[in-house]
Specification:
Layout (H helix, E strand, L loop, with lengths): L1 E4 L2 E4 L6 H18 L30 H4 L9 H13 L1 H22 L4 E13 L10 E15 L5 H67 L5 H35 L8 H4 L17 H7 L1 H22 L4 E12 L11 E11 L6 H67 L5 H35 L29
Antiparallel strand pairs: 1-6, 2-6, 3-4, 4-5, 5-6
Helix pairs in contact: 3-5, 4-5, 5-6, 5-9, 5-11, 6-11, 9-10, 10-11
Length: 507
Protein backbone atom coordinates (compact mmCIF):
# COMPACT_ATOMS: atom_id res chain seq x y z
CA UNK A 1 0.00 0.00 0.00
CA UNK A 2 1.45 3.40 -0.99
CA UNK A 3 0.73 6.69 0.68
CA UNK A 4 0.97 10.00 -1.16
CA UNK A 5 1.15 12.88 1.33
CA UNK A 6 -0.10 16.18 0.03
CA UNK A 7 0.91 18.59 2.79
CA UNK A 8 1.08 22.36 2.95
CA UNK A 9 3.48 24.05 5.36
CA UNK A 10 4.49 27.58 6.13
CA UNK A 11 4.45 30.28 8.77
CA UNK A 12 1.30 30.62 10.78
CA UNK A 13 -1.32 32.71 8.96
CA UNK A 14 -3.66 34.95 10.83
CA UNK A 15 -6.53 33.56 8.77
CA UNK A 16 -6.74 31.61 5.52
CA UNK A 17 -7.15 33.82 2.51
CA UNK A 18 -10.55 34.01 0.85
CA UNK A 19 -9.39 31.96 -2.13
CA UNK A 20 -8.05 29.27 0.18
CA UNK A 21 -11.30 29.18 2.10
CA UNK A 22 -13.27 28.68 -1.10
CA UNK A 23 -10.95 25.94 -2.29
CA UNK A 24 -11.15 24.00 0.99
CA UNK A 25 -14.89 24.54 1.27
CA UNK A 26 -15.29 22.98 -2.17
CA UNK A 27 -13.16 20.02 -1.12
CA UNK A 28 -15.29 19.67 2.00
CA UNK A 29 -18.47 19.57 -0.09
CA UNK A 30 -17.01 16.87 -2.32
CA UNK A 31 -15.93 14.89 0.75
CA UNK A 32 -19.37 15.27 2.29
CA UNK A 33 -20.98 13.98 -0.89
CA UNK A 34 -18.64 11.02 -1.06
CA UNK A 35 -19.17 10.33 2.63
CA UNK A 36 -22.66 9.15 1.73
CA UNK A 37 -21.20 6.39 -0.42
CA UNK A 38 -21.01 2.84 0.94
CA UNK A 39 -19.90 -0.38 -0.71
CA UNK A 40 -21.08 -3.89 0.01
CA UNK A 41 -24.61 -5.32 0.17
CA UNK A 42 -27.39 -3.52 2.03
CA UNK A 43 -29.15 -5.80 4.48
CA UNK A 44 -32.69 -6.99 3.82
CA UNK A 45 -34.55 -9.45 6.02
CA UNK A 46 -34.51 -12.80 4.22
CA UNK A 47 -37.78 -14.43 3.33
CA UNK A 48 -38.58 -17.97 4.38
CA UNK A 49 -41.58 -20.16 3.75
CA UNK A 50 -43.70 -20.66 6.85
CA UNK A 51 -46.83 -22.78 7.25
CA UNK A 52 -50.07 -20.92 7.75
CA UNK A 53 -50.97 -22.80 10.94
CA UNK A 54 -49.62 -25.35 13.36
CA UNK A 55 -50.09 -28.98 12.47
CA UNK A 56 -50.75 -30.03 16.08
CA UNK A 57 -52.86 -27.07 17.20
CA UNK A 58 -56.63 -26.96 17.14
CA UNK A 59 -58.01 -25.36 14.00
CA UNK A 60 -59.84 -22.80 16.13
CA UNK A 61 -56.67 -21.77 17.96
CA UNK A 62 -56.66 -18.18 19.19
CA UNK A 63 -54.06 -15.64 18.06
CA UNK A 64 -50.83 -15.48 20.01
CA UNK A 65 -51.30 -13.27 23.06
CA UNK A 66 -47.86 -11.95 23.98
CA UNK A 67 -49.18 -10.36 27.18
CA UNK A 68 -50.42 -13.75 28.44
CA UNK A 69 -47.04 -15.32 27.77
CA UNK A 70 -45.34 -12.91 30.14
CA UNK A 71 -44.93 -14.34 33.65
CA UNK A 72 -46.53 -17.59 32.47
CA UNK A 73 -45.06 -19.50 35.45
CA UNK A 74 -47.45 -17.65 37.76
CA UNK A 75 -50.27 -19.63 36.19
CA UNK A 76 -48.91 -22.65 38.06
CA UNK A 77 -50.03 -20.88 41.25
CA UNK A 78 -46.95 -21.78 43.30
CA UNK A 79 -45.61 -18.99 45.50
CA UNK A 80 -42.29 -20.70 46.14
CA UNK A 81 -41.68 -21.12 42.43
CA UNK A 82 -42.39 -17.43 41.91
CA UNK A 83 -39.86 -16.53 44.61
CA UNK A 84 -37.17 -18.78 43.09
CA UNK A 85 -37.69 -17.26 39.64
CA UNK A 86 -37.17 -13.78 41.10
CA UNK A 87 -33.98 -14.92 42.83
CA UNK A 88 -32.71 -16.57 39.66
CA UNK A 89 -33.24 -13.49 37.49
CA UNK A 90 -31.39 -11.38 40.04
CA UNK A 91 -28.49 -13.73 40.72
CA UNK A 92 -28.00 -16.10 37.78
CA UNK A 93 -24.48 -15.97 36.37
CA UNK A 94 -25.51 -16.60 32.76
CA UNK A 95 -27.76 -13.54 33.03
CA UNK A 96 -24.86 -11.56 34.48
CA UNK A 97 -22.72 -12.58 31.49
CA UNK A 98 -25.50 -11.59 29.08
CA UNK A 99 -25.75 -8.17 30.75
CA UNK A 100 -21.99 -7.73 30.42
CA UNK A 101 -22.20 -8.63 26.72
CA UNK A 102 -24.75 -5.84 26.26
CA UNK A 103 -22.40 -3.35 27.92
CA UNK A 104 -19.57 -4.64 25.74
CA UNK A 105 -21.67 -4.30 22.57
CA UNK A 106 -22.71 -0.76 23.46
CA UNK A 107 -19.13 0.26 24.20
CA UNK A 108 -17.98 -1.31 20.93
CA UNK A 109 -20.57 0.76 19.09
CA UNK A 110 -19.35 3.93 20.77
CA UNK A 111 -15.84 3.04 19.63
CA UNK A 112 -17.07 2.65 16.07
CA UNK A 113 -18.86 6.01 16.20
CA UNK A 114 -15.66 7.61 17.44
CA UNK A 115 -13.93 6.65 14.18
CA UNK A 116 -16.39 8.91 12.30
CA UNK A 117 -15.19 11.99 14.21
CA UNK A 118 -11.93 13.93 14.00
CA UNK A 119 -9.13 12.81 16.28
CA UNK A 120 -7.24 15.55 18.13
CA UNK A 121 -4.16 15.08 20.32
CA UNK A 122 -2.29 17.70 22.29
CA UNK A 123 1.30 17.65 23.48
CA UNK A 124 3.64 19.87 25.38
CA UNK A 125 7.17 19.74 26.69
CA UNK A 126 9.60 21.83 28.72
CA UNK A 127 13.34 21.21 28.54
CA UNK A 128 16.06 22.75 30.71
CA UNK A 129 19.56 22.31 29.25
CA UNK A 130 23.11 23.43 29.99
CA UNK A 131 26.04 23.51 27.58
CA UNK A 132 29.62 23.16 28.83
CA UNK A 133 32.18 25.95 28.62
CA UNK A 134 34.34 23.81 26.33
CA UNK A 135 31.68 23.82 23.60
CA UNK A 136 30.34 27.31 24.18
CA UNK A 137 31.48 30.16 21.91
CA UNK A 138 31.45 32.47 24.91
CA UNK A 139 33.79 30.25 26.87
CA UNK A 140 31.37 29.86 29.78
CA UNK A 141 28.58 27.53 30.76
CA UNK A 142 25.20 28.42 29.23
CA UNK A 143 21.88 27.35 30.72
CA UNK A 144 18.71 27.67 28.61
CA UNK A 145 15.06 26.55 28.52
CA UNK A 146 12.97 25.34 25.58
CA UNK A 147 9.16 25.18 25.63
CA UNK A 148 7.01 23.43 23.05
CA UNK A 149 3.25 22.93 22.67
CA UNK A 150 0.93 21.88 19.90
CA UNK A 151 -2.04 19.98 18.56
CA UNK A 152 -2.31 17.18 16.01
CA UNK A 153 -5.63 16.52 14.27
CA UNK A 154 -6.73 13.92 11.75
CA UNK A 155 -10.00 13.04 10.09
CA UNK A 156 -10.73 10.08 7.80
CA UNK A 157 -13.24 11.02 5.12
CA UNK A 158 -14.65 7.46 4.95
CA UNK A 159 -15.28 7.83 1.22
CA UNK A 160 -16.50 4.27 0.73
CA UNK A 161 -18.23 3.73 4.05
CA UNK A 162 -15.83 1.46 5.94
CA UNK A 163 -16.46 3.26 9.22
CA UNK A 164 -20.14 3.64 8.42
CA UNK A 165 -20.45 -0.10 7.87
CA UNK A 166 -18.61 -0.69 11.14
CA UNK A 167 -21.12 1.48 13.00
CA UNK A 168 -23.94 -0.37 11.24
CA UNK A 169 -22.46 -3.74 12.24
CA UNK A 170 -21.96 -2.73 15.87
CA UNK A 171 -25.50 -1.35 16.02
CA UNK A 172 -26.83 -4.72 14.91
CA UNK A 173 -24.48 -6.24 17.50
CA UNK A 174 -26.18 -4.23 20.24
CA UNK A 175 -29.57 -5.49 19.06
CA UNK A 176 -28.26 -9.06 19.05
CA UNK A 177 -26.89 -8.66 22.59
CA UNK A 178 -30.29 -7.39 23.78
CA UNK A 179 -31.99 -10.42 22.27
CA UNK A 180 -29.33 -12.67 23.76
CA UNK A 181 -30.28 -11.43 27.24
CA UNK A 182 -33.95 -12.12 26.54
CA UNK A 183 -33.11 -15.60 25.27
CA UNK A 184 -30.99 -16.25 28.36
CA UNK A 185 -33.84 -15.19 30.64
CA UNK A 186 -36.30 -17.37 28.71
CA UNK A 187 -34.04 -20.40 29.07
CA UNK A 188 -33.31 -19.64 32.71
CA UNK A 189 -36.95 -19.37 33.77
CA UNK A 190 -37.80 -22.54 31.88
CA UNK A 191 -34.93 -24.39 33.56
CA UNK A 192 -35.94 -23.11 37.00
CA UNK A 193 -39.55 -24.19 36.50
CA UNK A 194 -38.57 -27.60 35.11
CA UNK A 195 -36.14 -28.38 37.93
CA UNK A 196 -38.63 -27.15 40.54
CA UNK A 197 -41.36 -29.38 39.09
CA UNK A 198 -38.99 -32.35 39.01
CA UNK A 199 -37.94 -31.69 42.61
CA UNK A 200 -41.58 -31.67 43.72
CA UNK A 201 -42.14 -34.85 41.71
CA UNK A 202 -39.26 -36.64 43.42
CA UNK A 203 -40.55 -35.52 46.82
CA UNK A 204 -44.00 -36.91 45.99
CA UNK A 205 -42.50 -40.19 44.77
CA UNK A 206 -40.38 -40.52 47.94
CA UNK A 207 -43.49 -39.95 50.06
CA UNK A 208 -45.40 -42.55 48.00
CA UNK A 209 -42.60 -45.09 48.37
CA UNK A 210 -42.53 -44.59 52.11
CA UNK A 211 -46.31 -44.96 52.42
CA UNK A 212 -46.28 -48.03 50.23
CA UNK A 213 -43.37 -49.59 52.11
CA UNK A 214 -45.15 -48.96 55.41
CA UNK A 215 -48.28 -50.63 54.03
CA UNK A 216 -46.24 -53.55 52.78
CA UNK A 217 -44.62 -53.93 56.19
CA UNK A 218 -48.11 -54.16 57.63
CA UNK A 219 -48.86 -56.89 55.12
CA UNK A 220 -45.66 -58.67 56.19
CA UNK A 221 -46.72 -58.38 59.83
CA UNK A 222 -50.16 -59.79 59.01
CA UNK A 223 -48.58 -62.65 57.08
CA UNK A 224 -46.20 -63.43 59.88
CA UNK A 225 -49.09 -63.54 62.37
CA UNK A 226 -50.96 -65.93 60.07
CA UNK A 227 -47.79 -68.03 59.81
CA UNK A 228 -47.50 -68.19 63.59
CA UNK A 229 -51.14 -69.26 63.67
CA UNK A 230 -50.38 -71.97 61.14
CA UNK A 231 -52.57 -70.55 58.36
CA UNK A 232 -49.76 -69.22 56.17
CA UNK A 233 -46.41 -70.46 54.93
CA UNK A 234 -42.88 -69.22 55.54
CA UNK A 235 -42.66 -68.61 51.80
CA UNK A 236 -45.45 -66.02 52.01
CA UNK A 237 -43.64 -64.27 54.88
CA UNK A 238 -40.39 -64.01 52.89
CA UNK A 239 -42.20 -62.78 49.80
CA UNK A 240 -43.90 -60.04 51.82
CA UNK A 241 -40.59 -59.00 53.40
CA UNK A 242 -38.86 -58.98 49.99
CA UNK A 243 -41.51 -56.78 48.40
CA UNK A 244 -41.34 -54.24 51.24
CA UNK A 245 -37.54 -54.16 51.03
CA UNK A 246 -37.68 -53.68 47.25
CA UNK A 247 -39.94 -50.67 47.65
CA UNK A 248 -37.71 -49.23 50.39
CA UNK A 249 -34.68 -49.68 48.09
CA UNK A 250 -36.18 -47.19 45.63
CA UNK A 251 -36.21 -44.40 48.24
CA UNK A 252 -32.44 -43.58 48.28
CA UNK A 253 -32.37 -43.31 44.47
CA UNK A 254 -35.36 -40.95 44.49
CA UNK A 255 -33.81 -38.89 47.29
CA UNK A 256 -30.57 -38.59 45.31
CA UNK A 257 -32.51 -37.40 42.26
CA UNK A 258 -34.34 -34.84 44.39
CA UNK A 259 -31.02 -33.58 45.75
CA UNK A 260 -29.70 -33.13 42.21
CA UNK A 261 -32.71 -31.04 41.21
CA UNK A 262 -32.36 -29.01 44.41
CA UNK A 263 -28.66 -28.41 43.75
CA UNK A 264 -29.35 -27.35 40.15
CA UNK A 265 -31.91 -24.82 41.40
CA UNK A 266 -29.27 -23.39 43.72
CA UNK A 267 -26.83 -22.98 40.84
CA UNK A 268 -29.51 -21.39 38.64
CA UNK A 269 -30.08 -18.73 41.30
CA UNK A 270 -26.35 -18.04 41.48
CA UNK A 271 -26.12 -19.40 45.01
CA UNK A 272 -24.71 -22.45 46.75
CA UNK A 273 -26.16 -25.82 45.64
CA UNK A 274 -28.00 -26.31 48.94
CA UNK A 275 -29.16 -22.70 49.32
CA UNK A 276 -32.81 -23.60 48.65
CA UNK A 277 -32.94 -26.68 50.88
CA UNK A 278 -34.91 -24.85 53.56
CA UNK A 279 -37.37 -23.44 51.02
CA UNK A 280 -38.19 -26.80 49.43
CA UNK A 281 -37.48 -29.14 52.34
CA UNK A 282 -40.96 -28.88 53.82
CA UNK A 283 -42.42 -30.41 50.67
CA UNK A 284 -45.25 -29.27 48.46
CA UNK A 285 -47.57 -30.40 45.68
CA UNK A 286 -46.52 -30.91 42.09
CA UNK A 287 -47.54 -27.71 40.25
CA UNK A 288 -50.49 -28.39 37.98
CA UNK A 289 -50.80 -26.84 34.53
CA UNK A 290 -54.29 -25.77 33.58
CA UNK A 291 -55.20 -24.84 30.06
CA UNK A 292 -53.02 -24.44 26.99
CA UNK A 293 -51.59 -21.07 25.90
CA UNK A 294 -52.84 -19.99 22.45
CA UNK A 295 -50.15 -20.79 19.87
CA UNK A 296 -51.24 -18.28 17.24
CA UNK A 297 -49.64 -18.85 13.85
CA UNK A 298 -45.98 -19.70 13.12
CA UNK A 299 -45.17 -16.16 11.96
CA UNK A 300 -46.29 -14.78 15.35
CA UNK A 301 -43.99 -17.08 17.25
CA UNK A 302 -40.96 -16.23 15.14
CA UNK A 303 -41.46 -12.56 15.94
CA UNK A 304 -41.76 -13.40 19.64
CA UNK A 305 -38.81 -15.83 19.94
CA UNK A 306 -35.68 -13.97 21.14
CA UNK A 307 -33.32 -16.64 19.80
CA UNK A 308 -34.75 -16.17 16.29
CA UNK A 309 -34.54 -12.38 16.59
CA UNK A 310 -30.95 -12.71 17.82
CA UNK A 311 -30.02 -14.87 14.83
CA UNK A 312 -31.62 -12.34 12.47
CA UNK A 313 -29.65 -9.45 14.00
CA UNK A 314 -26.45 -11.49 13.75
CA UNK A 315 -27.13 -12.02 10.06
CA UNK A 316 -27.58 -8.27 9.63
CA UNK A 317 -24.30 -7.69 11.46
CA UNK A 318 -22.45 -10.18 9.26
CA UNK A 319 -23.89 -8.50 6.13
CA UNK A 320 -22.63 -5.08 7.23
CA UNK A 321 -19.14 -6.51 7.80
CA UNK A 322 -18.95 -7.46 4.10
CA UNK A 323 -19.14 -3.77 3.21
CA UNK A 324 -16.53 -2.96 5.83
CA UNK A 325 -14.14 -5.50 4.31
CA UNK A 326 -14.93 -4.39 0.74
CA UNK A 327 -14.20 -0.74 1.53
CA UNK A 328 -10.57 -1.69 2.18
CA UNK A 329 -10.25 -2.42 -1.57
CA UNK A 330 -10.75 1.27 -2.40
CA UNK A 331 -8.57 4.35 -1.79
CA UNK A 332 -8.89 6.20 1.49
CA UNK A 333 -8.29 9.87 2.21
CA UNK A 334 -7.44 11.40 5.55
CA UNK A 335 -7.15 15.07 6.44
CA UNK A 336 -4.33 15.81 8.85
CA UNK A 337 -3.26 19.03 10.47
CA UNK A 338 -0.74 20.21 13.02
CA UNK A 339 -0.15 23.43 14.93
CA UNK A 340 2.95 23.77 17.09
CA UNK A 341 4.73 26.55 18.91
CA UNK A 342 8.30 26.66 20.22
CA UNK A 343 9.86 29.36 22.39
CA UNK A 344 12.62 29.95 24.92
CA UNK A 345 10.15 31.66 27.22
CA UNK A 346 6.60 30.65 28.05
CA UNK A 347 5.40 34.16 27.31
CA UNK A 348 6.62 33.86 23.72
CA UNK A 349 4.64 30.66 22.92
CA UNK A 350 1.66 32.70 21.66
CA UNK A 351 3.67 34.94 19.38
CA UNK A 352 3.00 34.56 15.66
CA UNK A 353 6.69 34.08 14.95
CA UNK A 354 6.82 31.04 17.28
CA UNK A 355 3.89 29.21 15.69
CA UNK A 356 4.20 26.71 12.84
CA UNK A 357 1.49 24.73 11.10
CA UNK A 358 0.82 22.15 8.46
CA UNK A 359 -2.33 20.61 7.01
CA UNK A 360 -3.45 18.61 4.00
CA UNK A 361 -4.92 15.35 2.78
CA UNK A 362 -3.22 11.97 2.77
CA UNK A 363 -4.21 9.52 0.05
CA UNK A 364 -3.80 5.79 0.61
CA UNK A 365 -4.22 3.50 -2.40
CA UNK A 366 -4.05 -0.31 -2.19
CA UNK A 367 -1.81 -1.48 -5.04
CA UNK A 368 -0.52 -4.93 -4.17
CA UNK A 369 -1.29 -6.99 -1.07
CA UNK A 370 -1.09 -10.56 -2.33
CA UNK A 371 -4.89 -10.97 -2.43
CA UNK A 372 -5.23 -10.36 1.31
CA UNK A 373 -7.97 -7.72 1.02
CA UNK A 374 -10.00 -9.72 -1.50
CA UNK A 375 -9.69 -12.80 0.72
CA UNK A 376 -10.98 -10.73 3.66
CA UNK A 377 -14.12 -9.96 1.63
CA UNK A 378 -14.60 -13.64 0.87
CA UNK A 379 -14.19 -14.46 4.56
CA UNK A 380 -16.90 -11.92 5.44
CA UNK A 381 -19.20 -13.33 2.75
CA UNK A 382 -18.69 -16.89 4.05
CA UNK A 383 -19.44 -15.72 7.60
CA UNK A 384 -22.62 -14.05 6.31
CA UNK A 385 -23.67 -17.32 4.71
CA UNK A 386 -23.06 -19.11 8.01
CA UNK A 387 -25.25 -16.57 9.81
CA UNK A 388 -27.94 -17.01 7.15
CA UNK A 389 -27.92 -20.78 7.68
CA UNK A 390 -28.00 -20.25 11.47
CA UNK A 391 -31.09 -18.03 11.13
CA UNK A 392 -32.92 -20.54 8.96
CA UNK A 393 -32.04 -23.32 11.37
CA UNK A 394 -33.26 -21.20 14.30
CA UNK A 395 -36.58 -20.73 12.49
CA UNK A 396 -36.99 -24.43 11.81
CA UNK A 397 -35.98 -25.28 15.37
CA UNK A 398 -38.58 -22.85 16.71
CA UNK A 399 -41.26 -24.46 14.57
CA UNK A 400 -40.18 -27.90 15.77
CA UNK A 401 -40.18 -26.80 19.42
CA UNK A 402 -43.75 -25.55 19.23
CA UNK A 403 -45.05 -28.57 17.31
CA UNK A 404 -43.34 -30.98 19.72
CA UNK A 405 -44.61 -29.13 22.78
CA UNK A 406 -48.18 -28.96 21.47
CA UNK A 407 -48.39 -32.68 20.76
CA UNK A 408 -46.46 -33.69 23.90
CA UNK A 409 -48.72 -31.65 26.18
CA UNK A 410 -51.93 -32.90 24.57
CA UNK A 411 -50.89 -36.56 24.53
CA UNK A 412 -49.42 -36.53 28.03
CA UNK A 413 -52.68 -35.14 29.37
CA UNK A 414 -54.52 -37.99 27.71
CA UNK A 415 -52.05 -40.45 29.21
CA UNK A 416 -52.41 -38.91 32.67
CA UNK A 417 -56.18 -39.33 32.46
CA UNK A 418 -55.87 -43.02 31.63
CA UNK A 419 -53.26 -43.54 34.34
CA UNK A 420 -55.53 -41.90 36.89
CA UNK A 421 -58.36 -44.29 35.99
CA UNK A 422 -55.98 -47.26 36.12
CA UNK A 423 -54.68 -46.18 39.52
CA UNK A 424 -58.19 -46.02 40.94
CA UNK A 425 -58.87 -49.53 39.67
CA UNK A 426 -55.61 -50.89 41.09
CA UNK A 427 -56.36 -49.24 44.43
CA UNK A 428 -59.72 -50.98 44.61
CA UNK A 429 -58.14 -54.27 43.52
CA UNK A 430 -55.54 -54.01 46.29
CA UNK A 431 -58.23 -53.35 48.89
CA UNK A 432 -60.31 -56.30 47.73
CA UNK A 433 -57.36 -58.71 47.56
CA UNK A 434 -56.29 -57.85 51.11
CA UNK A 435 -59.85 -58.35 52.39
CA UNK A 436 -60.19 -61.69 50.58
CA UNK A 437 -56.78 -62.83 51.82
CA UNK A 438 -57.70 -62.07 55.41
CA UNK A 439 -60.86 -64.15 54.99
CA UNK A 440 -58.94 -66.94 53.28
CA UNK A 441 -60.71 -66.50 49.92
CA UNK A 442 -57.59 -65.34 47.99
CA UNK A 443 -53.95 -66.41 47.86
CA UNK A 444 -51.11 -64.29 49.14
CA UNK A 445 -49.73 -64.00 45.60
CA UNK A 446 -52.90 -62.09 44.68
CA UNK A 447 -52.17 -59.60 47.48
CA UNK A 448 -48.55 -59.17 46.45
CA UNK A 449 -49.45 -58.69 42.81
CA UNK A 450 -52.18 -56.16 43.60
CA UNK A 451 -49.92 -54.10 45.91
CA UNK A 452 -47.06 -54.19 43.43
CA UNK A 453 -49.35 -53.07 40.60
CA UNK A 454 -50.87 -50.31 42.72
CA UNK A 455 -47.46 -48.87 43.66
CA UNK A 456 -46.28 -48.99 40.05
CA UNK A 457 -49.45 -47.28 38.82
CA UNK A 458 -49.31 -44.53 41.46
CA UNK A 459 -45.62 -43.90 40.79
CA UNK A 460 -46.20 -43.76 37.03
CA UNK A 461 -49.10 -41.34 37.55
CA UNK A 462 -46.86 -38.99 39.54
CA UNK A 463 -44.27 -39.07 36.77
CA UNK A 464 -46.97 -38.30 34.22
CA UNK A 465 -48.15 -35.30 36.22
CA UNK A 466 -44.57 -34.02 36.27
CA UNK A 467 -44.38 -34.58 32.51
CA UNK A 468 -47.64 -32.69 31.89
CA UNK A 469 -46.44 -29.61 33.74
CA UNK A 470 -42.97 -29.86 32.19
CA UNK A 471 -44.54 -29.94 28.73
CA UNK A 472 -46.60 -26.89 29.69
CA UNK A 473 -43.32 -25.16 30.56
CA UNK A 474 -41.75 -26.29 27.27
CA UNK A 475 -44.68 -24.93 25.26
CA UNK A 476 -44.48 -21.50 26.88
CA UNK A 477 -40.74 -21.44 26.20
CA UNK A 478 -41.28 -22.50 22.59
CA UNK A 479 -43.81 -19.70 22.11
CA UNK A 480 -41.26 -17.17 23.41
CA UNK A 481 -42.74 -16.51 26.84
CA UNK A 482 -40.30 -15.14 29.37
CA UNK A 483 -39.39 -12.26 31.63
CA UNK A 484 -41.42 -9.14 30.81
CA UNK A 485 -40.03 -6.68 33.37
CA UNK A 486 -37.21 -4.17 32.78
CA UNK A 487 -33.72 -5.50 33.52
CA UNK A 488 -30.93 -3.20 34.71
CA UNK A 489 -27.90 -3.92 32.51
CA UNK A 490 -25.88 -0.81 33.38
CA UNK A 491 -24.72 -1.88 36.81
CA UNK A 492 -21.72 -4.24 36.51
CA UNK A 493 -21.48 -7.22 38.81
CA UNK A 494 -17.87 -6.35 39.67
CA UNK A 495 -17.42 -2.72 40.74
CA UNK A 496 -13.82 -1.52 40.64
CA UNK A 497 -12.59 0.94 43.25
CA UNK A 498 -9.51 3.15 43.56
CA UNK A 499 -8.98 3.13 39.79
CA UNK A 500 -7.33 6.56 39.64
CA UNK A 501 -3.62 7.19 40.09
CA UNK A 502 -2.39 5.42 43.22
CA UNK A 503 0.80 3.75 44.48
CA UNK A 504 1.64 0.47 42.83
CA UNK A 505 0.93 -2.68 44.75
CA UNK A 506 3.92 -4.69 45.91
CA UNK A 507 4.45 -8.06 44.25
Amino acid sequence: MTKTPLAMTGPAPQFLRRAGLARWAGLGLVAAALAGCAVGPDYATPGQFLPGQWGNARKTAKPLDVARLGAWWKKLDDRRLNDIVERAVAGNLDVASAKARIREARATRRQAIGALLPQVDGQGSATRSRSSAATSSSGSNITSSLYQAGFDASFELDLFGANYRNVEATTYGVDAADEDLRATLLTLIGDVATNYIEARGFQARVALARRTAASQRETEKLTRNKFNAGSSSALDVERAAAQAATTEAAIPTLEASYAQSLHQLGILTGEAPTALAGLLGSGGPIPAARGTPPAGIPADVLVNRPDVRRAERQLAQATAKIGQAEAALYPSVSLTGKISTTALKTGDLAKNSSIGWSFGPTLSVPIFNGGELRAAVEVAEAQRDQSDAALRLAVLTALQDVENSLVNLAKERQRAGKLSAATNSFREAARLSRTLYQSGAASFLDVLDAERSLYSAEDTLLQSRVAVTSNFVALNKALGGGWDKPVDVLQPRVVDTNTGPHPRAAY
